[in-house]
Amino acid sequence: MANLQASPNFGPKCDFEVVREAVRDPRIIVIDVREPNELIEAGKIEGTVNVPLGEVQVALGPEVSKEEFRKRYSAHKPDKEFPIIFTCRSGRRSGIAQKTAFDLGYTRVSNYTGGWLDWEKHTQGR
Question: Which SUPFAM superfamilies match (predicted)?
Answer without folding.
Answer: Rhodanese/Cell cycle control phosphatase
